[in-house]
Design a protein that fits this description.
There is one protein chain. The protein has eleven helices and seven strands. The chain folds into two domains: 3-167, C8orf32 fold (Roll); 183-251, no CATH class. The longest helix has 21 residues, at 147-167. It is an alpha+beta fold. 56% of the residues lie in helices and 11% in strands.
């Protein structure tokens, strides 16, 4: 993506702000029992209280929040982590960490945007000192300030997307190039999407179809539309009995089997 295009994206997303990120919806994408979900609610309420009443400047509060969340919650990067694993095992990926930060930022009344690329997701937060990019997977260098630095980091994400799909056969090669603002509801859809991909890579076709249906209902994204036909084809070629195959394909009726030159890890 050209720098001018990045500027256009940033100029658009700076005008938007989101309502309260739905913690219940994030937790609903996991298998955690209700008792554990309630504990997460209580933990985060207690966590936010001293930050919300702080007399420090907004950028200082944001910096403290970024550092403390990494210290207290984000301990081990694990691809395709479920959201509740942040609280039970300290495991996270860029998507689940972004979901956590979106909830905390809402509680602290920050205006922010969530930006999605093909293989990554991050936040841009508005402060009295200008915008701050939060890279949730970079504990030490993920608090990025200054327009030039933000644009350079976004350019790096775009270049990384292209590089990874060129050299790593285990990456799914999307036919599109994303750099767009998404909502909290879209975040929930992506959480379901990631778990659908995880189930697909484990050859759990039934779970993958259930999760992709949920993802598409919340966020009918281009990635869903590309993945759906691949999942259907895998189901039809699997050893599942015909009744189960039929149920899965019916569940994925919003997708059609298309010829595709893209590849996915399975």
């Amino acid at each position: 993506m050209k720098t001018s295009s990045l500027l256009a994206v940033l100029s658009l997303i700076s005008l938007a702000s989101y309502g309260q990120a739905d913690l219940d919806a994030f937790l609903a994408t996991t298998q955690a029992p209700n008792a554990k979900k309630m504990i997460v609610h209580q933990k985060l309420e207690a966590y936010l209280a001293p930050l919300a009443t702080s007399r420090h400047s907004d950028i200082t509060i944001l910096r403290k929040t970024f550092r403390r969340v990494h210290r207290d919650f984000l301990r081990k990067y694990v691809a395709y982590s479920e959201f509740d694993r942040i609280f039970s095992a300290g495991e996270y990926d860029c998507l689940t960490a972004t979901a956590l930060f979106s909830h905390l930022l809402d509680g602290l009344h920050f205006r922010y945007e969530v930006v999605e690329t093909n293989y990554h997701i991050f936040l841009v937060v508005q402060t009295s000192k200008g915008r701050i990019l939060l890279e949730t997977t970079d504990r030490f260098g993920g608090f990025v300030s200054g327009e030039d630095a933000i644009l350079e980091r976004m350019k790096t994400y775009q270049e990384s997307d292209i590089r990874e799909t060129s050299v790593n056969k285990f990456y799914y090669r999307y036919s599109f190039n994303l750099c767009q603002q998404i909502s909290s509801a879209n975040l929930v859809g992506l959480l379901y999407y990631n778990q659908s991909v995880k189930a697909f890579n484990q050859h759990d076709w039934v779970s993958s179809s259930v999760l992709l249906e949920k993802s598409h209902r919340l966020y009918p994204s281009r990635r869903c539309n590309e993945f759906g036909p691949i999942l259907i084809q895998s189901i039809l070629e699997s050893s599942l009995n015909e009744k189960v195959k039929s149920d899965c394909v019916l569940r994925l009726r919003n997708f059609s089997v298309l010829e595709s030159k893209t590849i996915a890890s399975n």
